[in-house]
Amino acid sequence: MPADQETYDVVVVGSGGGGLIGAYAAAARGLRTLVLEKTALFGGTTSYSGAGLWFPGSAPISRAGIEDDREAAHTYLRDVVADNSRAPLQDAYLRTAPRLIDELEQNPRFGSFAYQPVPDYFYGRPGSTATGRTVFPPEISVAELGELAPLIRRSIPEERWGIAEGSVLVGGRALIGRALRAFLATGNGSYLLETALTDLVVEDGRVTGVVAVSGGERRTFHATRGVILAAGGFDHNREMREQYSPVPLTGEWSHGAPGNTGDAILAGRAIGAATDLLDEAWFVPGVLQPDGRPVFHTGTRGGIWVNAEGERFTNETQPYDRAGHDMVRQQRSTGTTHSSVHWVFDHRQFERDGFGGDPELPVRPEWFESGALRRADTLEELAELIGVPPEKLRKSVEEFNGYAPTGVDERFHRGEAPWDQMFQFIVGFPADPRQNYLVPLATELPNPLLIPIDTPPYYAATVVLSDIGTKGGLVTDDHARVLRSDATPIDGLYATGNTMAAMSGGAYPGAGTPIGSSLVFAYLAALDLAGTTPND
Q1: Which pLDDT belongs to residue 340?
Q2: Cys bridge to 447: 35, 65, 375, 407, which one at CB 3.0-4.6 A?
Q3: Which run of H or E residues covers position 264?
């Protein structure tokens, strides 16, 4: 219900997955809880996502008959993150994730989560698994949500191109809808939309509320137990991005929700909170669209990426955050002020997979009219169009083509990891990341992901460095309590999601790490506020 008072037990700032799960967990334990959302819609960046949750050892994985040893997950997480200072956070995460799923599944409004095989992103490292550890929420119908459905943020395809999701919500929107419905059903939940945090209220060293602007007026909301900051990162804060980003990025190409401007991080820092990882983000490649903005690209199964010198520099099919970090390193090593990466492929791939939509439909003319997709009869002509040295582009293509007979990418090992091999069967189109088309690669070559680029005409799209949110924020302990620089907690203040410095450091261990972390630490915050444990 909308807020009708000024004092609550708990105030939650932000309504993404973490914010709503934290609010639900608090309200379900009898705490009067208020959710403040800066924009007019619930969901934050979670609504744009598939809502995968990297939850090792959880019940949905066991139900699927998958053996998943939590100790192996512990080994994997330690190895990939390689930062002992985050060990307590990792232990809390691995210990709590299965318990959180158990609790949610006890409430029929959440339904049963389901395991889907998505390989760990650093396959081959100790403790990694080809079957993955990711679970997803069940879908929910618009009819079931009723009057709440219009209050949930739309998916990116619907926001940008009007591609309606229809009568059923899936992925992140389903998680938000289910969590919002469960939160309000407790009888202890209230909310205010279009209400932006400006300051934290501190009394005798303890956070006791927030100051926010709502309806053009500054209002103070008191929290007798404490405040959970779950307001995302600083994705669209140009000043902060220019100050902290390892390469020139200002936020225009971020896939974070529009309200993510770092307000909660700045409010925490203003009262003495420590910050970390501000130079990090959940970096991803983005394919530039005809409207001049990118769309998150999950993986490439044909063609190659070349830099401004016409040279390959990465495994184009590897997990997106690893590819994004390779783009960061490429940009830093060349000293360029922008990421200039060209996705070069031939007519064979163009006919097989299409581009920018359903492979059964013609490519829309605006792709060529806008210059987002270019075409030439020869590689040399294509090189001139995209501004790379023709002889180097031809050399890169010939080198790549030379790997086809053996099936071994001698430079970047494309097609060897389980994640890569998924793209033998799945093609996710840049214009609509919700859709995965099952189009097997028909070839007698030993590695279907190393098909030669030799059938004219040739094409080039632009791949830019994007992200699905920043990952630096307020430093917390294993109860999600915000810490000062001397590692002492600020009483009454908690953080989660991209408002919190990531549990996984600079790494992205597996599908669902960002949202999974957001849910777990919001849950831990609610437990601490309620003075309970998961089993209470």
Answers
A1: 74
A2: 407
A3: helix 263-270
CB 343 within 8 A of CB 300: yes
Burial class of residue 366, CB neighbours in 10 A (0-12, 13-18, 19+):
middle
User: Is the torsion defined by CA of 309, 312, 314, 319 positive or negative?
Assistant: positive
Q: What is the pLDDT of residues 194-250, one digit of tens each?
A: 999 999 999 999 999 999 999 999 999 999 999 999 999 999 999 999 999 988 888
Lookup: tokens for 174: 């389903």
pLDDT of residue 445: 86
pLDDT of residue 151: 98
Here the tokens at position 75 are 């080994």
- Distance between CA atoms of residues 495 and 475, nearest Å: 8
- Residue that has been written with the tokens 């086809």 in this structure: 404
Strand 33-36 and strand 7-13: the pairing is: parallel
Closest residue by Cα to residue 88 from 479, 439, 375, 407: 479
Distance of alpha carbon 163 from alpha carbon 161, whole angstroms: 6
- β-strand pairing of 281-288 with 294-296: antiparallel
- The SS3 of residue 281 is strand
- State the alpha helices, DSSP H only, in 283-417: 320-334, 347-353, 366-369, 379-386, 390-401
Would the CA dihedral through 442, 448, 451, 456 be positive or negative?
A: positive
Separation of alpha carbons 454 and 37, rounded Å: 52
